[in-house]
Amino acid sequence: MAITDTLIPAVDISDKQTVPVTLNGKNILICKANGEFYAVDNQCTHQRAELTGGRIRNCYLACPLHGVRFDLRTGQPLGELTRVPLKTYDVSLADNGNLQLELD
Ligand code: FES
Questions:
Q1: CA 43 to centroid of ligand 1, rounded, Å
Q2: Which residue CA neighbors atom 1 of ligand 1 most closely?
Q3: For ligand 1, what atom is nearest to the CA of residue 81?
Q4: Hey, whose CA ends up nearest to atom 3 of ligand 1?
Q5: Is residue 88 a part of any domain in this protein?
Q6: Has residue 21 been placed in a domain?
Q7: What local confidence, expressed as pLDDT, does residue 8 receive?
Q8: Which ligand 1 atom is at minimum distance from the Cα of 44?
Q9: Which pLDDT belongs to residue 63?
Q10: Euclidean distance between CA atoms 78 and 25, whole angstroms
Q11: How many CA atoms lie within 13 Å of 3's alpha carbon, on the beta-carbon side?
Q12: Of 32, 38, 93, 103, which sits with the fewest C-beta atoms within 10 Å of its C-beta?
């Protein structure tokens, strides 16, 4: 596992916000829900739409295109459109206040 500093100060992300970042060539979406930070692949497993700007409610992120909701904790989708989970990444807070992701 490689740990990567995203250079995004945690304080700059508000609740229910999505922030796309490119790290090691991967398009990743950082999300804040209920005060917790999550990171997932920024590509829906239904028809590959970007998830940036998707609505967050509780711990679920809705795809802006057809509305599949993904559990940000596990990546698991709800509903019938896709059964393929989103890849999730561990997020932690570094001493400097930036978010840190574990990439593999
Ligand atoms: S592309 Fe995301 S739900 Fe269809």
A1: 9
A2: 47
A3: 3
A4: 66
A5: yes
A6: yes
A7: 86
A8: 2
A9: 98
A10: 28
A11: 7
A12: 93
Q: Give how many domains the chain has, as a whole number.
A: 1
Q: What is the CATH number of the domain that holds 70?
A: 2.102.10.10
Query: If you measure from the C-alpha of residue 17 to the centroid of ligand 1, how many angstroms do you get, rounded to a whole number?
Result: 19
Atom of ligand 1 nearest to the CA of 63: 2
100: three-class secondary structure by DSSP: strand
Domain span at 7: 2-94
In degrees, rounded to 5, the angle at the alpha carbon of residue 17 between the alpha carbons of residues 82 and 38 is: 60
Which protein residues touch ligand 1 with a CB less than 6 Å away? 44, 46-47, 49, 63, 65-68, 81
Q: pLDDT for 64-85, tens place per residue?
A: 999 999 999 999 999 999 999 9
Sign, CA dihedral 103-41-53-60, equals: negative
Instruction: Write the CB contacts of 67 (distance below 8 Å, at least 6 apart in sequence).
Output: none
